[in-house]
């Protein structure tokens, strides 16, 4: 199973009135981590879009344990938690400099045609992605 790492420097614009990272910003960090994972696996989401497909978010789960503040660094760790050829669930941990897990979560996605938003099988549409995703899915517990 491949676990990707993406370093983030907390920008002032990502913080709220309490001077901590705004809770919705972590979804952007998840996206950065997911994109990094795809690249680490040898693919680019932009290539998928150019071929007329999208992978919209179907569901999000996120848990907050510790805040981040402006100027700190965060590391987003991303992996494929579940994959069945149609639906992909990515797992995330965001850690601070000390290695503390500050945020955890998952996002669920499916592959759709850009024009119609009709779901399609990744196995049939992108067989190379399918093989790599199967190989890199977290083993069931």
TrEMBL record:
One of its GO terms (molecular function) is fatty acyl-CoA hydrolase activity. Keywords: Hydrolase. CDD domains: 4HBT. InterPro entries: 4-hydroxybenzoyl-CoA_TE (IPR050563), HotDog_dom_sf (IPR029069), YbgC/YbaW (IPR006684). Signal peptide: none annotated. It comes from the Bacteria. Belongs to the 4-hydroxybenzoyl-CoA thioesterase family. This is 4-hydroxybenzoyl-CoA thioesterase family active site. It comes from Bacillus thermotolerans.
